[in-house]
Amino acid sequence: MKIYFAGSIRGGREDAALYLEIIEFLKNYGEVLTEHVGDPSLTSNGDGGPADQYIHNRDLEWLQSADVLVAEVTIVSMGVGYEIGRAIEAGKKVLCLFRPEYGRNLSAMISGCPDLEIKKYTTIDEAQKWVADYFKRYF
Amino acid sequence: MKIYFAGSIRGGREDAALYLEIIEFLKNYGEVLTEHVGDPSLTSNGDGGPADQYIHNRDLEWLQSADVLVAEVTIVSMGVGYEIGRAIEAGKKVLCLFRPEYGRNLSAMISGCPDLEIKKYTTIDEAQKWVADYFKRYF
């Protein structure tokens, strides 16, 4: 099982610690291809070294090889939206995790998409329960 | 010629007046399906009346029927990212317009995507020149 985890990088790193916790939990179910998204040393300037086209093509290859995309969608991110769009158009399974109390309005293109699941949560325990529930149902 | 214009709605409406100017210019080249994106009365709460799934399915149908996607990508928007991802995965032409002076880092998934064009601009005149250049080359 290959899992692509998507979270904001250049859109803002406020949730990096949370991403790391979700990634650690996802490892119970398979290989997380995008472990660097939870790296606390990764700033909103991005991946540091590699050029953008290298990052895009590497991440796209991972996305294409993944069995499932799990996205934390609370922080607004163009890249996460792009990854969800490509995954849905390619017919992949997508689970979105969202914290409504953050005060953001989730895009209608995500919340209204009939081909993905969105689960709202407050604590990491709840997020883990939604992940466990999703993998139990689909895999 | 059918044109899908993408700009931020729930991600923030600071650029709504600019979207309107771009949309007006795009009308020289064809029908702009998403004219409401430039509506100054449309707030970041979204489309008001319709449910999210109605919005998603209506916009997706427009996107699927469009010959080209023109996206203003300066304000970070999950929906714009999603639309770009779906359009690229479906093999559609995509032109992105970006104002670097705004201080945001454009996502590597957009700036590094080899299947779209990104044009940087400062004034509406420059944006119009990039649009004119793009349509001249491709249509």
TrEMBL record, chains A, B:
Domain of life: Bacteria
GO MF assignments: 5-hydroxymethyl-dUMP N-hydrolase activity; identical protein binding; transferase activity
This protein's record includes keyword rRNA-binding: no
The enzyme's E.C. designation: 3.2.2.-
Cross-referenced SUPFAM superfamilies: N-(deoxy)ribosyltransferase-like
Catalytic activity, reaction form: a purine 2'-deoxyribonucleoside 5'-phosphate + H2O = a purine nucleobase + 2-deoxy-D-ribose 5-phosphate; a pyrimidine 2'-deoxyribonucleoside 5'-phosphate + H2O = a pyrimidine nucleobase + 2-deoxy-D-ribose 5-phosphate; 5-hydroxymethyl-dUMP + H2O = 5-hydroxymethyluracil + 2-deoxy-D-ribose 5-phosphate
Subunit structure: Monomer and homodimer.
Function: Catalyzes the cleavage of the N-glycosidic bond of deoxyribonucleoside 5'-monophosphates to yield deoxyribose 5-phosphate and a purine or pyrimidine base.
Name by which UniProt lists this protein: Putative 2'-deoxynucleoside 5'-phosphate N-hydrolase 1
Species per Swiss-Prot/TrEMBL record: Maribellus comscasis
